[in-house]
Amino acid sequence: MKAAFETPNHEAEIPPPAIEDLDLREAVHQELSRILASRFFRSAGRSRQFLEYVVRHKLEGHLELLKERTIGTEVFHRPHGYATGDDPVVRVQAGEVRRRLEQYYQAVEDCPIVSIELPLGAYAPNFRWRTPVAGPVPLPMKVESPASAQSPAIVLPPPAAPPAPKEGAHVGRWVAFGLCLCLGLALAFVTGTKSAGLRPASHVDSILQQFWSPVFATQQPVFICLAQPVSYRPSLALYQKYARSHPGTFQSEVERSNVPLPLSPDERISWREMTLYKEYGVAIGDTYAAVSLSGLLGKIGKPGQVRIGSSYSFTDLRNSPSVLVGAFNNRWTMQLTSSLHYAFVESGGHLMIREQVPSGPSWGERESPDGPVSEDYALVARLLDSKTGQFTLTVAGLDGKGTQAAAEFVTNSELLEKGLHNAPKDWQKGNVELLLQSTITDSIAGPPHVVAAYFW
């Protein structure tokens, strides 16, 4: 099992700047230097370029340069006027920078004067004071563009000094503090136990809570996204042609929709006798998976919406957390997982999951020579900040049975408990990719189990 966590190394960190006589610009520049020299950014070239660019132009007041297409052109050398909907490089990198900044501020031991934040859905960073300044407090500073005094300003008010306590007020203040603390703890307990709808006393249930907790970061519903592959059915003319030699057959739509057309394997038909049918096409395994996922969302008290085929777009995935169901029949699954450590690939007409490292192994469907038993594999990818900028969960198998098994895994607390038994301690704060195997007997998927995992 692999994990992308490193042992902290503070020797290379830049020490915190002195707090005396620092204006905002100098404080931000020094904090940026510390961030870029940290273990979270020093070897991440694209993240460094992105963060340096947006911080510099925010300080200079050039907010018009902090647009998605402009950043793509200036930082990532995309052609002018490129289609941002087809190339999400800026959104993906913004999500990566947010993740690295969060890791940096969680790991830093000394509290910096100014923190640099990249708000979700924006490319203009925020600068915030994090510690009170000793001695005289400077006035709020306005940073303007040297080229244009009319550029938007960054106003950063310093923390206000607490008022001097009145004589005899200490006892009342402590009593009030104690009451507020008790009320806060009681509210936190009630909220934590009721909002998710799961029992917090059980460790097994807590695993299910932890796995699904990112869906509560937004009030938007969770989209359960199914594909609608291209489907064809015989045309009415072909049914009528068959009925002329077999009187009384296929006279109703009920029969045509429920009884296969028993043509001889040697029967020749023309392409005009087949019809593209847009009302058909959802895979059985995907449907079972969607039912399981919808049931879990109802249990934990999170609204969910099932979207099929063309009823959702990349814009929808950017605005809401989502669960992508299915692999090769779902183009969004293929696009959003193509650069992951484990990915779906098609090679020589065979569908498989491959570890994307030099000479990495691959896993494909296998049939047993002893009977109707086979193996199917599936991927569960839990991405806190995917290419969409939202929490995305992929539940997808090589076959429909594998997809169904993957859905069972993410909705079953005992399976999750076993599958994450050897996960890093703080796996909840990062991305998770689990490769599952399930034995298929008489077309029924057995309980899935983890055969490989990757954490970062």
Major sheet details: 10 strands, mixed
Output the structural class.
alpha+beta
> What overall geometry do the principal axes of the alpha carbons give?
elongated
Helix run count: 13
- The count of strands amounts to 19
* Residues in helices, as a percent range: 25-40%
How many domains in all? 3
Show unreliable segments.
1-21, 132-204
As a whole number of angstroms, the C-alpha radius of gyration is 28 Å
Distance between the termini: 11 Å
Percent range for β-strand residues: 15-25%
Q: Give average pLDDT, whole number.
A: 78
Describe the structure in brief.
The protein has 456 residues and is α+β, with helices and mostly antiparallel strands. The chain is built from 13 helices and 19 strands. The protein is elongated.
Task: Summarize the structure in words.
- With 456 residues, this protein is of the alpha+beta class.
- The protein is built from 13 helices and 19 strands.
- A hairpin with an 8-residue loop joins strand 2 and strand 3.
- The chain is elongated.
- The N and C termini lie close together (11 Å).
